[in-house]
Backbone:
């Protein structure tokens, strides 16, 4: 089972992975930068249709170092997706991309 790589971070980062028919994206931040809690928004940006875009708002409790969001893979558009996370306190953002190149069940067949 793939896990998020946990490495010391000096700046915020967002990482995504596809597992069990879900797309998980996790936002990491330095706990020392989170003394009072943070408010962030996840922007899921579809390669094909704004109807598949999504924005979700999260509150990260003080001293916590991450938060995640997920989407179900079935029904998502194929292509290169972008996920942007904006820190609403500082207006700084981080972004990552991932590629969905098949949405049929063959993607989940085990060898």
Residues:
């Amino acid at each position: 089972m793939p896990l998020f790589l946990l490495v010391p971070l000096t700046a915020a980062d967002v990482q995504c992975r596809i597992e069990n028919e879900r797309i998980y994206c996790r936002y990491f931040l330095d706990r020392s930068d989170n003394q009072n809690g943070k408010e962030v928004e996840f922007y899921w940006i579809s390669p094909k249709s704004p109807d598949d875009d999504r924005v979700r708002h999260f509150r990260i409790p003080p001293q916590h170092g991450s938060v995640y969001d997920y989407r179900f893979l079935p029904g998502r558009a194929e292509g290169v997706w972008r996920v942007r996370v904006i820190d609403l306190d500082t207006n700084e953002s981080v972004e990552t991309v991932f590629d969905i190149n098949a949405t049929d069940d063959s993607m989940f067949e085990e060898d």
In short: Confidence is low (pLDDT under 50) at residues 1-10, 103-111. Residues 13-108 form a domain with the Immunoglobulin-like fold (CATH 2.60.40.10). The longest strand covers residues 79-87. The radius of gyration is 15 Å.
